[in-house]
Amino acid sequence: MTVNNNFSDIAYNRKSIRLYDESVKISNEEMLEMIQKSTIAPSSVNMQPWRFVVVESPEEKQKLKPLIRFNTRQNDTSSAMILIFGDMECYEYGEEIYNQAVIEGKMSPQVRDEQLAAIIPYYKNLSREKMNDVVKIDSSLAAMQFMLVARAHGYDTNPIGGFEADELAEAFGLKKDRYVPVMILSIGKALEEGYDSIRLDAKEFITFK
Questions:
Q1: Which residues in the chain show pLDDT less than 70?
Q2: What Å distances lie between residue 90 and 52, 56, 123, 151, 201, CA to CA?
Q3: How high is the pLDDT of residue 4?
Q4: Structure confidence at residue 199 (pLDDT)
Q5: Distance set, CA 96 to CA 48, 137, 155 (Å)
Q6: Does the reported pTM lie above 0.85?
Q7: For the chain, how big is the Rg over CA atoms in Å?
Q8: What does the alpha-carbon distance between residue 1 and residue 54 come to, in Å, rounded to a whole number?
Q9: For residue 5, how many other CB atoms are within 10 A of its CB?
Q10: Using the 8-state DSSP alphabet, how is residue 24 labeled?
Q11: How far is CA 101 from CA 43, 46, 51, 109, 121, in A?
């Protein structure tokens, strides 16, 4: 797979695709590579709360179909549907993450211990509403990163927010209280060009002070 490193081609020309070439399959190895690149996205205190479920088999897509409302064309034709969840207990990985930082020489054991002693209790004591905000913001950054990475790999994507959020986690074997759905991304090779959408001029939304 040739990777496109031209940012203008990757970002500025991105379109949301709803109909894909059904003959195009993405190997698990390449999917893993794209997700790995996506996880360089920033996250609060590096807790990395994003969780990915790659739905690619006909059987699992059939299970997803009644949960995605008006987005069945993407589900039927895409190479895969990427379900992105936020882990409300992501702090359980804190020690593993910070230990790896020490191993790679990115922080000292003393700094690790000091930061974990402050971060873990803080996260555990956050309200569910606040934690929900944290993991959804961080996981959305990873989702956008994945869309750019996929484009660089020659694939097209479509972010989907219309789905049965209350049912998604349990339908795919995840604990509903722990894993909150953030969005779904369809991915594949576009069979149609997609449509141009309008964006207001940035000056409408910016204030310099």
A1: 1-15, 194
A2: 13, 26, 9, 28, 38
A3: 59
A4: 83
A5: 11, 22, 33
A6: yes
A7: 19
A8: 20
A9: 8
A10: -
A11: 15, 10, 20, 9, 20
